[in-house]
Specification:
heterodimer, A: 99 residues, mainly alpha, 2 domains, 4 helices, 82% helix, B: 201 residues, 0% strand
Chain lengths: 99, 201
């Protein structure tokens, strides 16, 4: 996996130098989407071929839901604490948020 | 939302083809996914490097905004660690790795598939897509009860793009820069944290 991470860093450096060419950036966006579609399609195929996963799909779904609920409620509570201590606007505007 | 539907469609299409085993032998035998992941990561890197907005946001930030992504990381790990108590079939590090996708389902599921197998990869895909969908649906409510950072918290890595509109709408424009910042930091960290957790914990 180190190679993958190094490739990403190489990409970031390459990205700096092409940021002036919007057409290349558009192309990059399209290629990125295509690569993601292709990879998830391939992942789908290996999942379809894998009998253990197919038979346990309901269990996997429940696990995914539980993990998501844990992740979201943990993050929301953590940032609620941060918000109250560091980010809450001063009371001077009556607590209302002018937009 | 539209994007995740397209991605899910490709995934489901793959599953259906795999189930029917109507595939050319070449595809059944060769594992292209590692090479495709190499290409994807390079492209993702280019996208990050070339994104002037994200980098200029960094320059205008006060140091305390680093607390936001750090809080999301800490909260996610604490929340998923507690969730793992309900999941006897999964190891703690597997649950933490799925959580460390922070909603970035494409990349995290592919990484986890390579490191831990397809079973956990699918868990990561579903769980992180769900994080995005939940954020899109629940942000109005979350912001009301848990402050202006709640949508950013829930969105995780997606707060820089897919969930940014709903966050901006319900927290206010003044929070959108923090939202982008937090999302960029988390997006960058996903591959590193997932690899670290699965390899060294």
């Amino acid at each position: 996996m180190t190679i993958v991470l190094l490739l990403m860093l190489a990409g970031i450096i390459a990205g700096f130098s092409i940021s002036r060419y919007p057409q290349l950036l558009k192309l990059n966006d399209k290629l990125t989407s295509a690569a993601i579609y292709a990879l998830l399609f391939l992942l789908g195929i290996s999942v379809g071929l894998n009998k253990t996963i197919i038979q346990n799909l309901d269990k996997i779904g429940v696990q995914a839901i539980i993990i998501t609920l844990g992740a979201v409620s943990g993050s929301v509570l953590a940032l609620w604490v941060l918000y109250r201590f560091f980010f809450k606007p001063e009371k001077s505007n009556g607590g209302r948020n002018e937009k | 939302m539209k994007n995740s539907l397209i991605i899910l469609t490709f995934f489901v299409l793959g599953v259906v083809l795999g189930l029917n085993e109507k595939l050319p032998d070449l595809m059944m035998q060769t594992d292209f996914s590692m090479y495709a992941l190499y290409v994807l990561m390079f492209l993702v890197g280019i996208g990050i490097g070339a994104d002037k907005n994200s980098w200029s946001v960094l320059k205008t930030m006060k140091i305390k905004v680093f607390l936001v992504p750090l809080g999301v990381i800490a909260g996610t790990f604490i929340g998923t660690a507690l969730a793992s108590l309900l999941l006897p079939d999964l190891k703690l590090k597997e649950v933490l790795a799925v959580g460390a996708g922070f909603g970035y389902y494409s990349l995290s599921s592919l990484f986890i598939t390579q490191l831990s197998g397809e079973m956990l990869g699918v868990t990561a895909l579903l769980s992180n897509i769900l994080r995005e969908i939940l954020t899109l649906l629940a942000t109005p409510l979350l912001v009301q009860y848990f402050g202006k950072l709640a949508g950013i918290a829930s969105g995780g890595a997606t707060s820089m793009d897919t969930t940014l509109p709903v966050i901006t709408r319900y927290s206010g424009k003044e929070w959108s820069i923090i939202s982008v910042f937090s999302g960029v930091v988390l997006t960058l960290l996903v591959p590193f944290l997932v690899t670290f957790i699965l390899k060294f914990c």
